[in-house]
Amino acid sequence: MKKKRNILLLEPNYKNKYPPIGLMKISSYHKMLGDSVTFYKGEMKDFIVNEIYNECLEKISTIDSDTTWYKKEKEIKLFLKTKRRSILTDLTSGNENQPLLNEWFSYYSDYYKKKKYLDNRKWDRVYVTTLFTFYWKKTIETIEYAKLLVRDQKHLMVGGVMASLLTHEIEVETGIKPFKGILDKPGMIDDNDIIIDELPLDYSILYEVDYRYPTGSAYFTFMTKGCTRKCAFCSVPILEPTYKEKVETIDKFLQIKELYGEQQHLLLMDNNVLASPKFDEIIDEIKEMGFYKGATFVEPNQYEIAITNLRSGFNNKGYTRRAFFLLHDLLQRRLKRNKKVAEQFYDILDEHSLLELPEVTEENLIKSHDLISPIFEKYRDKAPKQRYVDFNQGTDARYVTEEFMKKMSEIPIRPLRIAFDYVGMKKKYVEAVRLAAKYGIKELSNYLLYNFKDKPEDLYERMRINIELSEELELHIFSFPMKYIPLFGEDAKHRLYVGKHWNKKFIRAIQSVLNVSKGIVASGRSFFEKAFGKNVEEFYELLYMPETYIVYRSVFEEASLSQIWLQEFRAIKKSEIWEEVKIILEISDFKNAHTLTNNPDILAFLEHYTITRDNVKEQNSEINKIRQRYNNLIKRDRFIELTLTYDFE
What GO molecular functions are on record for this protein (predicted)? Predict the structure, then answer.
């Protein structure tokens, strides 16, 4: 009989929108083989401490089962990390088993501090997924920790986007050779005929971690793979070099539906679905999956799904946590207006030790099921909700035809993402937007790549086009300026790259504007013209404006400082000192301006740039209103959050 392996799946602790699809397929793969799978996303130091804490808790609970040790979790973990005697005294003082408890607490603290866990590694195989190259530091840190956890480093597998783009760099840095590409052939990691890339996703691992992905209830899948284009700024030709015009989806869809319940939305990760000659078939299949125009969704009973999976022994940790949070969500949200039922429900949870997560067991969840089930079913949310389809990676305007757009309008697409990567696409982009409006698609979204080969006025022009199309066609078009970062080399490892026609000051100015609006350029001429200028000339003035004046616009306008700066700026632009000032502004190192010039007029002008955000003590009500407006927009519409790039941070 084949030995059951302990598998650890790690996602570095970066902020990301989508769950780790590759790890979810790998989890399905290993569970098919009977292996034990654990998923973790968070700080790796915490993971090691948590593992040792759990072992320590199990041991001391056998010595003293009367003390609710889990309520002292914070103090125990602090002692494990520091071995402070005062903490140990507080933990065990007065306990009749104090000497024995002290001995074991000290043992586990030494186990952590002296890294004795390196002699007792429990993981037979560890997988680390990677995402954007600019998460280099966090990702390398995760790989280095993974090396400490896996029994044999030849069974440490690193894959994903960054692994495929910076393969050599990762190997040089860590000594681990990453896997490049996707697991789309049999026998790629074990000697069997399973094609991992074709497996359904294991959604249950997402319940094991505290991190919450903003995608909500959704199917994640592909209808096609790869792209027919070879754009220099895009990683797809490397990650998915072969274009597959149709990927079998229905069987995986049905498996997910059966095991995890119906999902509300359909998120398609295709990189160029419109390039497929089977586009009509794809749309028909999407409709067959239940995503037709006007389709609604009623959330299935997630509690019953959790209990069913607990009874079958499928991911006890994940579904224990899932059931706990479902029950407490019902108590705190759905039952808050029915005091009598809330009290009855609370008493059931209390009686079965379901009030605090560390106490909850799968056995108690199953025992309490008959009492909880009718209450949960009666009061859970059963309101019909709209279903939407999102081709999340965008569609290619150059492939759009009237027939394609008419066919696409048969599904509840929201938003329609149309790429507008450079201003040379203007004609095709505008035609595609007009066709969308013609066939009743009213919500659109796009990334606007900048800092590549474009000029700042190109970005302004694309934003302006969207504002005008929104007004003319009565559409909601949300633009998301996305800063280009190289795919390879040292510049790929951070977010500091400056394109040929850009400079540090211009990039920081764009980010300052987007900081206010959470990265979104929404429909609405008044905000756009205030934020980016009424024309290209005003846009360039804004790019040179001090960052603090940009963010806290109303504060400095009321103090007349913005107007004074603008008068001085316009005067300097017409003077003989402009070229010297321009260089200093574009370097954007204002703290050391005195080392760059000794001209008193220039130094006096540069004082505008030494005012930092920390110097702004007034509460800027205008900026708070704008931020709240965009916060509310994001909360109302999950699809906007799924488009955020976080570049503005």
Answer: catalytic activity; iron-sulfur cluster binding; metal ion binding
